[in-house]
Amino acid sequence: MWFSMILWIKKHYFQFQIMLLVIFKPTVLFDKINQLKWYKGTLHQWVDDQKFSIQSTVLEVGCASGALTAYIAESGCIPTGVDSSKRMVELAKSNNEDVNFLVENALDLTFKDESFDAIIAASLLNIVSDKDKVVSELYRTCKKGGVISTLVPSAKFKDENLLALQTSVGETGFSIAAMQAWHNRAPKMKENDILLLFTKAGLTKIRTKSYLQGMVISVSATKPY
């Protein structure tokens, strides 16, 4: 009996740890996830695929602990990271003193029209209640000719796809448990629903790409002149 209990605890330890962090220390959880190799690598590849020009002004909406915003700064762009969580913004500022971070509501950004050359949002559009309003705000604050890109968990990715992905990344412990939790808990979106949102907003040159063997998808588009 005790042996079986020990095995159960070992198997579910990291899932239990993640559950406790979600309840009591979500800031710590998001910071830990942003450091995971598979998660960080995906975000970096997504940003690299946008091919932002040097000195471009880039707004990241939903920046969490600011790790990706800092990566954008390292690439030679001029980023601003915003998040609705004051604690997240405080953490982002403490981690990256030379990057601009602000507390902002994605539904009502305080920036002037056409303030940024590019705007990105990871794991944001899938969790907000008024998706049309958020896309409208991204559109409003993006310069004409600028790029808007979102990254979200894909509704096409199923349970049977997860094991193959976990095996391919070759990680264990907290990292794999976090991937499992993200798959099970994060709201997902259909590619066509995002395409419709972008089209309704007036965006053009819409293109899509999948990452992590289809676990997440990006939709990028251009604001016309």
Number of domains: 1
Specify the biggest β-sheet.
7 strands, mixed
Q: Element order, helices and strands? A: HHHEHEHEEHEHHHEE
Taken as a percent bin, the fraction of beta residues is: 15-25%
- What overall geometry do the principal axes of the alpha carbons give? globular
Number of separate strands: 7
Strand order of the largest sheet: 3-2-1-4-5-7-6
According to CATH, the homologous superfamily is: Vaccinia Virus protein VP39
Low-confidence stretches: none
Please report the distance between the alpha carbons of the first and last residues.
69 Å
Tally of separate helices: 9
Named CATH architecture: 3-Layer(aba) Sandwich
**CATH third-level topology:** Rossmann fold
Q: What's the pLDDT, averaged over the residues?
A: 91
The CATH class is Alpha Beta
Helix content: 40-55%
Radius of gyration: 18 Å
Structural class: alpha/beta
Write a concise keyword list for the protein shown above.
single chain, 225 residues, alpha/beta, Rossmann fold, seven-stranded mixed beta sheet, 9 helices, 22% strand
